[in-house]
Amino acid sequence: MARIVIIGGHGRIALRLAGLLAERGDEVDAIIRNPEHAGDVTAAGARPVVADIERLDVHDLAEILHGHDAVVWSAGAGGGDPARTYAVDRDAAIRSMYAAESAGVTRYVMVSYFGSPDHSVPEGNSFRAYASAKAAADEHLVGTTLEWTILGPSTLTDGEGTGLVDVDAPSSGTVDRADVAAVAAEAVHRDSTARRTIRFNSGGTPIAEALD
Questions:
Q1: Do residues 165 and 198 make contact, with C-beta atoms less than 8 angstroms apart?
Q2: Residues 133-159: pLDDT tens digits?
Q3: How far apart are CA 17 and CA 3, in angstroms?
Q4: pTM: predicted TM-score of the whole model, two decimal places
Q5: Which of its termini does the chain have fewer beta carbons within 10 Å around, N or C?
C-alpha cells in the first residue's frame, strides 16, 4: 500500500486512476480546484483536496504533498487560452516538482503526451502552447533529483480500455484513457519505470508485461 497524490484529480484519466489505485489498497488524495467536483472524486475512491495549483506557491504545495509516497501529475489547462496553458501545464507543473523535492516525495509520474518534448509545432498552430508547455515541464523533470517517469500516451480515446498497449512505438496512434490510467497505476508502483520516458499506443501486449 502506498499513499499517492494525484494532481488534477477530476480529469477523465485521473478519476479512473484513483479507482485503480484504491482497488490496489492505496490511499489516494486527489487535488481539485472546484469543490463541486469533490463528490466525483470520493465516488472514484480518493479523498478530495481542494486547492488551486495555478496559484499555490512551492511552499504551500509542498505542505500538501508532504507524507505521500508518490505524486502523479494529471492536470492540464485543457487548451484554449495560451497564457493559462503555460501557467498550468508548464509553471504549476514545475512548481510541483520543486514542491515534491522539498517535501521529500521522490517518486513522480508525469502524464504527458506522445510527442513531448517536441518543439516542432509551428507558431500560430493552436497546439503550440500546449506542446511547448509540456516540453518545458518534461525537460525540467528529467533534470530533477526525483525518481521520475514520463508517460507519453498517443491520441486519447474514450473506450473502455483493453489492457493491451504497444510501448516505444515509432509513431503516435490512439489509446483509451482507461488504458492510460492503467499504465499510470502500474508505473507508479514499479521502480523499473523510474527515469524512463514511456511512449505508448493501444496494442497487443499486456500492460504489466509491456512496462517490463
A1: no
A2: 999 999 999 999 999 999 999 999 999
A3: 13
A4: 0.96
A5: N
